[in-house]
């Protein structure tokens, strides 16, 4: 898709049966769903994979029931949290665990951090491609200067200065949004 | 969100590593799997002989008909045809 769609537009297209839009929706929220299960709830890889597939299967199945298309992000987050708790509850059957304990398993602090992280990742989509790529590779994919430098045919020193410039650019964008008032909640 | 110093931005970008590619691909292919599932169910409803073969040996029947054996589709079909 040439231009980024808002969450509402994307959901509307998915509901209309647009397969490309569905692929984009999965792509847009895949990191978020994954991070909630492995970072906030510390699920094993196998459990996290089951939760991941179940979240998107249910989302696909119940997209028609979503009351506010712009609310797909909190809806997916809530669905992921519920399924993570179900999974922890199932694996705790042999070792009884209080419901309150399970609720606390997904630390609020981590969930808030991930929420902010998703906002930053969405902002990444608005900076130039070369910036997006280098920041994602270095921070999110944990690639070294050497790997990035070899792939992009750039010396290590250039990578470091480019990362710094791109972070500044991202910062300007996010601060500009804050100055302009509350975010719309979707792209 | 208020302050965006470089360290905080780096931490936030780092907080969302990519999900494994295979997981993402499988989720993206859900509509295809759903379409295939609907087609198989519709055929089974219209063709008693095909339905009987599915009930007798699901995986062999799908393979014989050239369907890709998507695990999610196979599991869903197994549930649907189990009680019949």
Q: Count every helix of chain B, treating DSSP H or I runs of 4 or more residues as helices.
A: 6
The helix content of chain A is over 70%
Main structural class of chain B: mainly alpha
Query: In the residues of chain A, how many domains can be counted?
Result: 2
- Rounded to the nearest angstrom, the distance between the terminal CA atoms of chain B is 55 Å
One letter per element, helices H and strands E, the order of chain A comes to HHHHHHHHH
Give the H and E element order of chain B: HHHHHH
Describe this structure in words.
The complex is a heterodimer of chains A (187) and B (84). Chain A starts with 6 loop residues before the first helix and ends in an 8-residue tail after the last helix. The longest helix of chain A has 24 residues, at 156-179. Chain A folds into two domains: 1-106, RNA polymerase sigma factor, region 2, helix turn helix motif (Rna Polymerase Sigma Factor, Chain: A, Orthogonal Bundle), CATH 1.10.1740; 126-187, Winged helix-like DNA-binding domain superfamily/Winged helix DNA-binding domain (Arc Repressor Mutant, subunit A, Orthogonal Bundle). With 187 residues, chain A is mostly helical. Chain A is built from nine helices and no strands. Chain B is an all-alpha fold and 84 residues long. Chain B has one domain. Chain B has six helices and no strands. Chain B has helices at residues 6-14, 21-28, 30-46, 48-56, 58-64, 71-82. The interface between A and B is medium-sized, with 42 and 27 residues.
